[in-house]
Design brief:
The structure is a single chain. The chain is of the alpha/beta class and about 280 residues long. A 7-stranded mixed β-sheet has the order 6-5-4-3-2-1-14. It has a 7-stranded mixed β-sheet with strand order 7-8-9-10-11-12-13, with helices on one face. Helix 3 crosses helix 4, helix 5 crosses helix 8 and helix 8 packs across helix 9. The chain starts with a strand and ends with a strand.
């Protein structure tokens, strides 16, 4: 099976990074983990036809993980006539209905009279749920991120491999170690103190700079703690992602390797991994 990084950036689309999106496929069918802004081009460049990946597993409903959905939806429906399936935390159904309604205002739906809503299958999942998709088995766990939303990490059994995806979280070994136990790949968000310092160095507003630093410390995962989770859970490979603009891949990887003896990979858009 193959994993394609269609978006690896944190929060904002940059010239080199779209927002969070990962395509899993076995050459015939696939699914998406998150669908952030800018990721549609990465999905197209993967070479897998759009209709072959029509399931989306969502970690949480922050814009950088879900706002690519309307574009993806439109490209599945036109010209393919494929209606996707969406799996995500509480609130996913309301988001999908709103996004589909807005998209329908500007493009309409094949085979539907104007104004007729499109029904998209949505399954909302919660802490400890085990969900059976046609493509994969998914076990989900609530992780600590922002106070106003439910954030999930997922463990997927896909094409004979185990992939664990952290979504966005402050690292929590009690949850992530069991979820990643023995996985072939752990996809985990990560930041470094040096990366944050480089990113915020040009921020003239000291209050804003301190807010960025405090928010990352409270809601995201420092790379050394991520690497320790990878080591304790016995994963084979660690993919570091959700990178802020100040991160230097070699520096980030070196910090991880100080705590994890397996293979460390720093995500970049277009990266393709065979498992």
């Amino acid at each position: 099976m193959r994993i394609t990084v269609c978006g690896s950036g944190a929060g904002w689309v940059t010239a080199t990074r779209a927002n969070s999106c990962y395509l899993l496929d076995d050459g015939e069918r696939g699914l998406l983990l998150d669908c952030g802004p800018g990721s549609l081009l990465g999905i197209a460049r993967s070479g897998l036809p759009f209709p072959s990946a029509s399931a989306l597993v969502v970690s949480h409903l922050h814009m950088d993980h879900i706002h690519g959905f309307p574009q993806w939806l439109a490209h599945l429906l036109r010209p393919h006539g494929v209606v996707p399936r969406v799996y995500g935390p509480a609130g996913t159904r309301a988001y999908v209905e709103a996004a589909a309604g807005l998209t329908g205002l500007v493009s309409g739906w094949p085979g539907k009279d104007e104004g007729v809503p499109l029904e998209i299958p949505v399954i909302e999942i919660g802490d400890g749920d085990e969900t059976r998709l046609p493509e994969a088995g998914v076990r989900s766990a609530v992780v600590p991120h922002a106070p106003d939303i439910t954030a999930l990490a997922h463990r997927l059994a896909f094409a004979g491999r185990i992939i664990t995806y952290s979504g966005d979280t402050n690292v929590v070994p009690a949850v992530m170690v069991p979820l990643a136990d023995g996985a072939d790949l752990l996809i985990h968000e990560a930041y470094s103190e040096a990366g944050l310092a480089d990113w915020t160095a040009t921020t003239a507003d000291a209050t804003r700079r301190e807010r960025i630093l405090s928010v990352f410390a409270a809601t995201h995962s420092r790379v050394d703690t991520v690497a320790k989770v990878a080591a304790e859970s016995g994963v084979k490979r660690l993919l570091l992602t959700h990178l802020n603009p100040g991160e230097q891949p070699a520096r980030l990887a070196a910090e991880a390797r100080a705590h994890f003896g397996g293979e460390v990979i720093v995500a970049e858009d277009g990266l393709s991994l065979e498992l």
